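Shipment paperwork, digital attachment
Item: protein structure file
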Amino acid sequence: MSKTPGKGGSTSPAADESEPAAPITVMLSSRLMVLANLLKRGAMLRYKRLAGLSSVEFGLVASLGRRPPMSVARLAEAVGQDKGQISRALADLVSRKLIAKSANPKDSREVLVSLTKAGLAAHDAVVAGAQERNRRLLEHLSEDELRTLLRQVDALTAIAAEMLEAEKAPR
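Attachment content:
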């Protein structure tokens, strides 16, 4: 009385009861988190070396990019933090002359931020570094493998977003 192997890989009811549960480290979500953490740590070291940016500063510079000035509230929203969380990093970037602040000509109560010439240079160095890291990460994949991987990542991302929304729902 054996089962056919499924996604769990077990072949018999006895195996389900006698084998210990798989450690969480073999689960796909755990492996993806390890990959993401390794990539993030490497990126942060590179961006610190290339442009002297911390993780939070990098997020601000990357979000401002080569765009028109934006409000501090909009920037905070873009990086997924509140204005209070980014205020120290913004002040540091302003003091290092990487970001300029100005009043919004349409609403003088609102502050706009944008990259300075030095900030744009830091941004461009970070983008070049990111492109090199991406190239190095994917260079061993064929075009077909890359297309397949990206499709699968997109599908898993959509499922993960649905799962997050389900977790947010009141029970």
